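Example 3.2
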Amino acid sequence: MKLKKIFAAITAAAAILTSSSLTAMALEDGEATYCFDTADKLADWQTYGSTAETGFALDQTTVYSKNGEGCIAVSENSAGNISEAYGGAYISSETLGLPNFGGCTISMSVMLNSGAAANIENFSLFCDGMIWLETPIIDINSNEWTEVTLTIPENAENPRAGFTIPTFGVYSGEIVYIDDFAVTTSDGTVISNVGDYKAKTVSSTETVSTGTNIILTIILVVLILAIVGGIGLIVSSAIKRFS
C-alpha cells in the first residue's frame, strides 16, 4: 500500500511538471478528435457526480467556434447548497480505440461566457483512473480562445479524460465554451476526428452580393476612365503649351 502511495506521489509530481502549460501546438481546422461542429458525437460524453444537482448540461452551439461550424456550451442551473460537490463530463479511452490515456496529451480550447468570470473556481481539464491528474483552468477570458493541455505519464493507466463542473455556487446560464478537444498519443499522432467536424458556413451577410459587385465594378471603371481622361488632358495641355 505504501509503495502504491509513493508511486502515486511521484506520478502526480511528474504530471504537475508537464501539465501546467496553457499553450500547445495549434490544430488545423478539422484536426481535433472532437470538433463539436455538430451534436452527432455528444453521446460519447458521459457525466458523473453532482451534474443533476447543478443542472450541468452540454449543448452544441454555432454561435461561437474556434474552428469549424461550432462548439459546445457548458451550462448550469444551480441554486447552490450541493451536499457532495464533485463531477463533470468525460470520454472513455475505449471509445477512441485506446486501452487508456497513458502517455497521451489531452488538450482543448476554452472561452469564457462574459458574465461568468466569477463562476469557474472548480473548472479543470482532468484524467482519471489509476491516479487523478488535472490542469486547473483559471486564466481564460471571453475575448479569445485559450488552449489548455494535460500530459499523462506513460505508466498512468487512466481510462477517463474530460473536464469538471465549473462551479457549485448559485448560477444559471452558460459558463464556458469548449472547442477542439484533442487526444495526442505519445508518438505525436492526434487521434482523428470522430465524425463531428463541419466546415464553417459562410452566411450571406458575410459575402458581397452580385448586385453590389456589379456596382463596385462600374464605379471602378468610371474612376479608371476619369483618371485616364485627366492624364490625357494634362498631357494635351502640356503639348499645346510647348508647341
